Amino acid sequence: MSRVFDPQVWAAVPFHFWSLAFFTFGSIVGSFLNVCIYRMPRGQSLVTPRSHCPHCRYSIPWHLNIPLLTWLFLRGRCANCGAPISIRYFGVELLTAAAFLGCWLAVGRESAPLAVVYCLLLAGFIVATFIDFEHFIIPDEITLGGIVLGFLCSLAVPALHGAPNAAESMKQSFFGIVAGGGVIYAILRIGKLVFGKQKLDLAADTTVVFTETALVLPDKEVPYEDLFYRDSDVITLEAKLVELIDRCYRGVRVQLSASKLVIGEEVLDPETVPYMEVVTDQMVLPREAMGLGDVKFMAAIGAFLGWKAALFRLVAGGRVGPMRLGNGRKRGGGGSKLPAPTGPTRIAPCAATRGPPAPARSSLRPSARPGAARKGRGGPGL
Predict the structure, then answer these.
(1) Fewer CB atoms near the end CB (10 Å): N or C, the chain?
(2) pTM value?
């Protein structure tokens, strides 16, 4: 490994040859990241089947799977059926190529290994960002895998933490994991106690309908997937009247979670209740600002960048997050707010800063819905 990253070996080749190499390799990695972005949240294999058109399932041959060039040559359309291929595929390849090039230009002259590690980190950021924006989750493969990879990279490249040796670098990585994950977890638990419930006042004798997929209020429809983030999330209300298909209740307390429906003292399986009407004037809904995926994601950032960088990114991300979370995202038509992805607010400060520089100079010099990480529930089968 030391021979591969020997500064004299890298310096023997013109600097901008490596610039071109990093850009090209970045575009290739970006092509793989597109696979990760599409398949990871769906629980699909990253290996099989081969890359194919999402419309006609045409298996793409190697000569039509060249990063950047193929999309431009085919004008963003499938070679077999002519269906449009999202510009996101081209954008991710270009973004990754530019990120890899930027890492090389920033630190390549000082340390080629450091440039490679930063490339790995930014690749993880790119996958996490696009998945979080679309599915509001950050898969464990990225977060937990990032923690392990960050710790191993700290062992292999002490310059990642500006450390004089591997032992000190691994210590900084460990403290980064504890600080990044621990502080976010504490904030999550406190936030759950203080802000984890939303009291909703309704007009007197309002009829609320629970269908198989959503809670239907007088002015909007809220999908269960927007309410049940954790197993502990519960909708609570005092009902004047509850009507099921085969029976009714009067003057009872109703509690609904993703796995259980409690009406008075009777406990039911939500999957067996396809429809329910409730007359009430007040209800309490669960809400969430962040999930365990954010905890593990910050721990991964700490593993790569150390505790000081993790805390800085936490504070800086906290300034971006409220603006993003305050706006939310409007669901077209229904008007209900979707939860905003918080992973990108952790990533934004990381893109603006870098970890501690290597202390020693060499001949080359420098300048994160349904998923395992933030477990969403599809909602009860009401």
Answers:
(1) N
(2) 0.67
CB-based contact 89:77 (threshold 8 Å): no
Residue indicated by tokens 């850009």: 23
Same domain, 308 and 329: yes
Q: What SS3 string covers 157-201?
A: CHHHHCCCCHHHHHHHHHHHHHHHHHHHHHHHHHHHHHHCEEEEE
Same domain? 125 vs 13: yes
Q: Name the region of 251 (left: φ>0; alpha: ψ -120 to 50; beta: rest).
A: left
d(CA 258, CA 189): 20
Looking at the fold, whether 222 and 256 belong to one and the same domain comes out as yes
Tokens 């992973």, located at residue: 343
Q: What CA–CA distance (Å, rounded) separates 19 from 382?
A: 56
In a domain, 265, yes or no: yes
pLDDT tens string 189-242: 787 777 778 888 999 999 999 998 889 999 888 888 778 877 778 999 999 999
